[in-house]
Write a structure and sequence with these properties.
Layout lengths: L2 H12 L3 H8 L3 H8 L7 H11 L3 H5 L3 H51 L3 E2 L8 E6 L2 E6 L17 E5 L2 E6 L3 E7 L9 E6 L13 H13 L1 H19 L1
Antiparallel strand pairs: 1-2, 2-3, 3-4, 4-5, 5-6, 6-7
Helix pairs in contact: 2-3
Length: 245
Amino acid sequence: MNIGDKIKEQRLKKEWTQEQLGQLLNVSRPTISSWEVGRNYPDLEMTVAISDLFGISLDELLRGDREMTKNFSKKLRWNRYYKIILAVIAVVVIVPASSLAKLHWDEHRYRENLAAHSWREDEDSRYPDGYLLNEGEIEYSVFITRVGWLPIPLPEYRPGVTAIKGDLMVHVNEGDQNSITVHDAPGKNRTYTDSIAVDDQANIIEEKDWSAEKKKAIETYIADHKTEYITLLKAAAEKRAEIVQ
């Protein structure tokens, strides 16, 4: 017995007309008729509603109707594929789009904060989107990435601030990624310039392949200017906090 026959059997047991059953299921009388004669099948959601209405299990309602069972299996498979497709779309389109929107919001926020704290655009810089701020003997600089609208995944960008005072220079970035620049002589007399990772107290936290002579010279240079480096690192960190807040 197929599902159409079972629907008709259960309807007659209840002494309902096709019109009455259609009203209970919120479908038309011709729809009930097409089910009962086997022209069409109810969908999965409607089959569950019919099962509940007649008080019989889905297994009992579907048992023996191979075509209906085959149709349901096919629909269930497609439903799974549909969910997989939606998940892929979310990963490929929605997630990157959300990330991109956040990057645009961050860029806008950074630029607003720069304007609020009197930073000016660095018109002489060879890089676009550079900003400068002068306070006393210290010059601060920062670069803000222009995100654009390319629909591709981009890493989250956090601007770093550079502070320069005379021959001393420091750079402060996200997560205490600090560095200082050291050299062996002022101006054109320099034979080397090195950027070295340090903590906020200007202590070296990285190993480089220096000669013993160069290492000693660098350590001496940092020791001689340690107080100034610490002050610059703190000042740059404060300026950066104003931008990314």
